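Two proteins, back to back. First:
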Amino acid sequence: MKLVAFGLVLLGCLQSLAAPDNQVIALYEMRMMLTDSRSVLKDWNNNQVSPCYFDNVRCDQDGSVIGITLSSSGLSGILSPSIATLTTLQQLLLDGNSITGGIPQELGNLSNLMTLKLGRNSLNGSIPESFGFLSELQNLDLSENLLIGNIPNSLSNLSSLNNINLAYNSLSGEIPEQLLQVSQYTIQATI
């Protein structure tokens, strides 16, 4: 009996000494690229073994990150491409902050992503062509940013998309025909 108890204590100690997984590293890198005026990311550090203990992060039963909820959290800075290593991510909510810079092309690798909300920031540049690979995407909000250029034709590949908001940007060109079939869309562009 004492041996079993000792084994459990030893196992607990070894787990606390284990190296953080790639998800922890990705979230920590994301934190390092952002200014956190409200300390909502204070526990996002690279000493954690599991990201499931981070505030505003949701994991599935296997310990994989499936949600990041940081809407209107007072964040500024730029988006880290390391987010794309969170391959099980289904929901990324970063709307209503002061995030600047371009949208990382790498976000197109998040093949399980269902909801992407980056609206009401100060993101600039163009909408990544790689977003056409987000085959599970249902909700896309890029409204109220500083985005320019054409709406990528690749967004027409998103057969699961049922809500898209691209309003209040400086987009130009034609709206891909398939996007007009989406059940709820708000697209304001300079044509």
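And the second protein:
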Amino acid sequence: MEIALELIQQLAKDERVMWVVGGGNVVSENNSKGIKEPEYSEGYLTVEADNWHFHVPLDKVTGIQFVEAESHGDLLSYYVRFSGDNEETMLRG
């Protein structure tokens, strides 16, 4: 999914982005301190920062949503949600 590649590359240019990996019972929340240019190889996009990294199988991304959500009371959050089979959240940024 070429648009997923382009969106993640654009999000990685902003060190204010919080990356949330997963969406089930366990998620990992990661800041963008020291984020590097994502690298694409053999179907996977690797996103890496100072003390974390993750791999996204781009062929498994079946949906992309732009979301506005309330969090922590009246605070609004804006993020891009990447989902896979059965609308499972894979990644938010």
